[in-house]
Structure formats: structure tokens, C-alpha cells
Amino acid sequence: MVQDMTEGKPLKMILSFSIPLLIGNLFQQLYNMADSVIVGRMVGMNALAALGATGAIFFLIIGSVMGLTTGFSIITAQRFGAGDEEGVRRSLAMSILLCIFFTVLLTAISVLTARPLLSLMNTPADIFEDAWLYIVIIYAGLGASMYYNLVANVLRALGDGKTPLYFLIFSSILNVVLDIYLIKQFHMGVAGAAVATVIAQLVSALGCTLFISRKFPILHLRTEHFRLDKKNALAHLHVGVPMAIQFAITAIGVMVMQAALNNFGSVAIAGFTAANKVETLVTQPFVAIGITMATYCGQNRGARKMDRIRQGVRIALAIGFCATIFAALLNIFGGRFFTQLFITDKNDLENALYYAQQYLNIIAVFYVTLAVLYVFRNSLQGMGEAAVPVFGGFMELVARVVVSIFLPLKLGYVGVCLATPAAWIAADIPLLLRYIFKMKKEAPIHKKIKAQERNSIKQTNQ
Length: 462
Known about the structure:
Blueprint: H1 10-42, H2 45-53, H3 55-81, H4 85-120, H5 125-140, H6 142-157, H7 162-185, H8 190-215, H9 230-262, H10 266-282, H11 284-302, H12 306-339, H13 349-364, H14 367-382, H15 387-411, H16 413-417, H17 419-461
Helix pairs in contact: 1-2, 1-7, 1-8, 1-10, 1-11, 2-5, 2-10, 3-4, 3-6, 3-9, 3-11, 4-5, 4-6, 4-9, 5-8, 6-8, 7-8, 9-15, 10-12, 10-13, 11-12, 11-14, 12-13, 12-14, 14-17, 15-17
């Protein structure tokens, strides 16, 4: 069930890993899209705006969960690439212990701060209570999200992108069914959408765990694997915490942007929310390539194959650039069709669609910078880099905050739309420079290691 990405043609490896991952990501997006479509059509535009108003603080915590679990799994991937099976098991055990700790900590913090953060972001009064109810239920079920992301990322670290996909398909369908049932039959509104999301993620995580117990002996743990080891814990925290901080920094910038957007009223929020769902859907190829490169570079870094990493990055960029054309065309020519899936209210429908299409047209021009961001950030993280990706996140924050505060004063709603592209560009610069510098620095070390290996083989043959 595992896939060794240190051997074979890089293009074939990257595509065979990223395509199932892409399909899985698309189904994962159905969690939030199903919530938005069903809430927008069954409950109303204000309820849709309420979900949109929680987007930034949702990403603040869920993004931190994704960062932590992805970071922990990079250590797993590196040990797998080095052929250290016991190291893989110790990595999984340490990841479980750390995830339990962070679940308790993040759940307590997020539930207590949800209402103050919504107030700080100028959430309109007509959607405030629905927004708070939705996000506090999501936060209360944070353990399900942590659980799923952990098991899915560990499987991907071993090169298995298909198993998480199968369970995501099932749980996505379950999420839609529960959405409709809880909203239509029990009249739970946005609360029903939140409960459905938590249950669906928990089911997906349990399915992955059962499959691991039967098919992945390399992940079968014993009591001694859970021994507290300071060095092992620090190795995981060294990668996981900076990745979580990076997501959190990005989320803070999005919160500032959301606060600026909230000043334009609930119709603009609804239009922007619908457009953001479309953007999230069409940019999933970039996400899939990014996650693939984290695993690919992690395994090859463990195997000390830097030339193979360089080759893989070039291939990933080519795939990403092709995907930008497809995503931009969908935005420009299919944006109105897709956004109408979320909004059926006749009142202010055209205004909401206008806001949505305006954002989609602007963002389409800059997708190439997003492709660059995903490839270089995840490649560096896969190689064990922590500081520069975090600095890139800080640059995102600065750019998004500055643009969100000042450009809307000059350009109105367009100024809010430009905040995200500015953040992507600002993050690209340090990531690209660090990658170039690192590969030049690693080149002589890599040649020396290869020479030593060749000499060792010659001596063995003699």
C-alpha cells in the first residue's frame, strides 16, 4: 500500500500521487460547499453570509490543525524515505500524543474566543448569532478534524493518496445527506450544517484507522513506541509548529480582509463568500501539487537525492502553470453559473452576483503566483525548512493587512479583492530566493555524498 517516491520517473510519481489527492481534495471541499449551497438555498442569503463571515476564524484554527499534522507527517515521510520502519512507528506515536495535546489546547482557546473575534471583525448584527453558532460547533468538534488530518497525512507520507480519497468520497456524500436531513427535517439551520461536517469528518477518520489496522503493518504500534522522547518530540514540533504558525499568520491577514469586507454589508459578503467557494474549488490542483511535493521532497530528502528533488520541482511548476490556465478560464467564464448555485434569493441577487464575478475576474489573473507559492513552500517544508515558510507567511500577513486597510479607501470593494493576490506575491519572493540558495548550497554536499557512496560500492566489489 506504500509508495516509494525515491525511485522511478518523477513525472509519473508526482502525477500518480497528486491525481487521487486532487480528487480527494475536491471531495473534501464538498464539506464546506455543501454547507454553503444547502444553507444558501434552504435557509437564505443571510445564513450564507453568516457562514462566509466565519471563514477567516475557521481557517485560523482548522489551518493550524492542518499545519501541525502536515508537519508531523513530513518527519514520517523522511524516515520512510530513509528506510527506517521503527522510526516511522515512533513518528506516528509521537504525532498521536502531540495531536491529543493540541486538540485540547486549541479547542479551549477557539471556543472561548469565537464571539470576541466575530465582534472584532465587525460582523453585521443581522448575521452575528448564526455565524457564532456555526463556528462554535465546528470548534467543539475540532478533535474530529485533528483525527482525520493526522491519519490522512500519515498515509500520504507513505505514498498512499488513494485510501484517504475513498473515505472522503463516502464521508462527503454522508455530509450532504446529513446537511439536508438536519436542516430540512429538524430545522437546525446553520447548526445542522456544522454538526453534519463534524460527524462526516469523524466517520472518515474512523474508516482510515480501520483500514490502517488491517493493511499497514508498518503503522502497527506497540506500547514502547509511545515512550516520551524529548528529541523525537522536538523533531516533530520543529516542523509542525512553524507550519501551524504559518497557517495562523495567513488566517490573521484573512481576518483583517474579512473585517474590511464586512463594511460593505451582507450582500457583498454573500457574493464574496460564493466566489470564494468557487476559487477554493478551482485552485485544488495547486493544493494537490503542493501536498505531493511535501511528501516527494520529504522522502527524497531522507534518501539524500537532491538532484531528484530539483527535477521534481521543475515538473511540479510545469503542471502548476498548466493548471492556472484552466482555473482562470473557469473563473471568468463559469463564475456566474457556479455562484448561482449558492444564492437563490431574488432580492439583491444581481448585486451579489456582481460582487462575486468581480472578485473572480481579478483573482484569475494572479493564479500563476499561487501555483509558485504552493510548489516552493511545500517543497521547502518537505526538505525540513521551517523558518522561511513562516517568514513567507508573515510577508503574506503584512501585504494583506496593508492592502485591506488602505486600498478600499481608494478603490472600494476592488481594494478588498486585491488583498489576496498581493499576499501571494509577497510570500513568493522569500520562498523562491530560499529555494535557489538552498539548492546551490546542497549541491556540493550532495556530490560529496554520492562520491562516498560510489567509493563504498567499489570497495565492496573489490
